[in-house]
Amino acid sequence: MRQTLLLCITLVTAGALYAQNFSEGKMDSLFTILKQKDKYMGSIALSENGKIIYTNAVGFADIEAVKKADTQTRYRIGSVSKLFTATLVMKAVEEKKISLQQTLDAYFPKIKNSDKITIHQLLNHRSGIHNFTDDDEYFEYYTQQQTKYQILTIIEKGNSDFEPDTKAAYSNSNYVLLGYILEKVYQAEYSVILNEKITKPLNLTNTFVGGKINPNKNEAFSYDFKETWQKEPETDLSIPAGAGALVSTPIDLVIFIESLFNGKIISQKSLEIMKTIKDGYGSGMFELPNTGKTNYGHDGAIDRFNSLVTYLPADKLAIAIISNGGVYKNENILLCAVNSYYDKPFELPTFENLMVSIKILEQYTGEYSSEQLPIKITVDIDENQLTAQATGQKAFHLEASSETVFKFEKAGIVLEFDAQKNQMILKQAGKEFKLNKQ
């Protein structure tokens, strides 16, 4: 449910071709490298106009049991769950169970500003309700089952970060509350509502509210790479609820988002409300980077699971990617998928770490800043390897791909140094920033 990135920037490029130009070879080559270098575990699906045009899976669902992942392996999808919850809310609006202008006090009057916060503001992150997963205390209980009363109490104590509708700020609290509201208006558990309104009609047999991970049902564990893959503790899914409790597969996700855009779940009028983006957020969706065209979707992270699903209306193209462990980012795989579809070049990673002399590395150490960025980056040396540390974040080691170019693949970061000019260029998500050494 949390993602730590140095930057999150939308890439804008151009291009439009057809699926017959889709290069499976590029995608196969990328997944072969990721498998050989042991840099990624996960799965992908691409669908055009309702037909699957590519699927693949790499890595393990359960390393200890040596159980390999396949395209039917089920993964936790984190905040991609919000796209489902928002769709269910719009369905409830169509069924006149609820109104987008209904205020929160009708359901949870103890929450600060509940008499001002509307359902619509919960959907598009304009409520001001504090995001409870940002608190340090969250990591004291996140693996333990919590009752709805306990989570509500935590959200109530978090109060508000700003007055409703004055700005937008991402908050898992919004969607936990929306899940609870759905249960109130339908007088049923969220899992039942999901099954009745979405998964059963669409035959999404691999999408459901998760519980404790069960490898016997082809459910994947998540892993962090620390010299070797280390199994990550499991968030108890009683906590994220409508904000992030779902399990799915990339194939199910592309079917879902195509059905959503083709009017098989809600009306086009309701979809337009979801697609309306203000201050970066729609209602349960936003634009993802690395597509190069107008797209609508959502990403997610929970434990070491990372997921994304997006739909490009112009070409009726849906892409979904879920990983349960990776040094290489899903955003890079998305870029490869899009470039493969539009027959654009894509540079495959090599993961080769060159040895650069300390004398050269010492030229790059120091603090860098730019008027374009609100952060500073400190470059240092640790065990004969460059490290970088952004303001307020932990230091990370950089791998050299040349004597002047260094990468942190886990976040898709590339740093290029010019010692003579005392400058460093930061590249991430298709954007470049020039920083000067202080």
UniProtKB/TrEMBL annotation:
InterPro entries: AmpC-like, Beta-lactam-related, Beta-lactam/transpept-like
UniProt keyword annotations, A-Z: Signal
Signal peptide start and end residues: 1-19
UniProt keyword Membrane, yes or no: no
Domain Beta-lactamase-related, residue spans: 43-326
Protein name according to UniProt: Beta-lactamase family protein
Organism, as annotated: Paenimyroides baculatum
